[in-house]
Specification:
By secondary structure, this protein is an alpha+beta fold. It folds into two domains: about 5-170, Regulatory protein AraC (Jelly Rolls), CATH 2.60.120; about 180-295, Homeodomain-like (Arc Repressor Mutant, subunit A, Orthogonal Bundle), CATH 1.10.10.60. It has helices at about 95-100, 110-115, 125-140, 150-170, 180-195, 205-210, 215-225, 230-245, 250-260, 265-275, 280-295; strands spanning about 10-15, 20, 35, 40-50, 50-55, 60-65, 65-70, 75-80, 85-90, 120. The strands form two sheets. The chain has a six-stranded antiparallel beta sheet.
Length: about 300
Amino acid sequence: MKIDKYIEEGSIDYKDDRIIILKQINDVKEVASSPIKAEWFIAILCTSGRATININNEQQTLNKDNLLICHPQTIIESGMVNLGFNCCGFCLSPEYMKQMLAITASHWSSKAFLDENPILSLKPDECELFLQYYNLLKSKLIAEPHPNKKKLIDALLVAFMYEFHDALKKHIAISPPKYNSAETLFNSFIDLLNDSYPKERSVAFYANKLFVTPKYLSAICKDICGENASDIITRYMKIDLEMLLKNPNKTIKEICNELNFGSLSFFGKYVKRLFGVSPKEYRENLNLKSQQEELTL
């Protein structure tokens, strides 16, 4: 998802290929018929009002002083906002985020936590900290160009990540980064999964890319995050499948071909193993759920 593709121009204070500064999100274009998968890191602070949005197939409510954090691979569906809703935030490209994360390396534990808890309730001083850096970054980004502007922005973001990292530790159990070969291999595996589409379902494929054996890769994954490599691949496949099966503009055969399944029969068995129902039944259940939600409105 190119995040600016789904946000009205009036909601963007600044954008380039690294960072987007958002000033208002209540003008997001309707994408209800076609869920999107985030390709950028997104951080949005609600400063007033309330909004509901579906994140990874779960309805979430964003209230005042709530921080929404989405990482790449997050499935986002349109929701509802009240008239008083207002928020601000920014989006960072994966490439830029990797540069900035040299000082606060990404961890599977925090990613898994944010998958389940994308909205954090901040204290007033934490909100003030976010807004201070947000306003400072915005002012520097929209200022006239000068020779050291990029270095200045990088330094501000690093400072923000250092300081806000400490604030997030109150909400998320963030362990210190371990700069060893096992962590490096694991992070490279996750990067491959994030960057590939359609995703290969074989552990051997990723192991070959990383110049290790499938058995060793799975052992490293199990040691670091408690899941073997196959389980992690399945987790990512479920994200792609949920997004595609929710898209009414794609037929089941088209999805099967897009994800490189050899046959519709094999695709159907794979989906049933993951979700407990066939692709057709999955879509029927979605339609039924949608009808029930409309009745409750």
